[in-house]
Amino acid sequence: MSTVVINYLILIISMVITIAAQVYISKCYNKFKNIGNQKEITGFEVARQILDKNGLSNIHIVETKGELSDHYDPKRKVIRLSKDVFNGSSIASVAVAAHECGHAIQDKNGYWFLKFRNFIVPFVNFCSKIGYIAIFIGIIASLFDIAMFGIILLCALLVFQLITLPVEFDASNRALKEIEKIKLLDRNELNQGKTMLTAAALTYVASLVTTILEVLRLFLIVSGNDRD
Q1: Which of 213, 224, 207 shows the shortest CA–CA distance to 10?
Q2: Domain boundaries in the chain?
């Protein structure tokens, strides 16, 4: 099998994985955002309760634009929830809001993986930008060493994504424990919330796999050009 065929095959596999992950999380989210929780508690109320019970009353909760744009901002100590999560009283709203609180609790407890991930963000962004530039210049100018240096820089993104996995899975575990402890959902609803959070976490696994495949594809391209 030629290098060109392998490159196209890797590209197709990467696209399939990315699309499949997005379809799966969207399917789960759309399913559980249409199932209301018995207590009719909103995402905002869930987040406020969890934060307050963990001594995090200083953290603000605000509504943000977009769908599945929810995140915790460790610098500003703010949890941003999308409109449907902030105002909604669905299983998805509870699960997503609790997950973001999980990140806030990680921050409070000095969770190592979260601290390290936040620390390397500027470095990873720099390496990603310079890496692609170096690969492009190396391929165009037939400078194998420059192109390989670019690929090595891109490995910083792999490290970042690898560290992200325990951060996200741990935040989900913390979320489920908090939901159960405060009794925000019954047993069946809790299992549905777990399914929702697992689907979200798998998107990070998919991102890691596709990045690995992309780095491999670029390596094959650079290696092929060097032999030519």
Answers
A1: 213
A2: 3-227
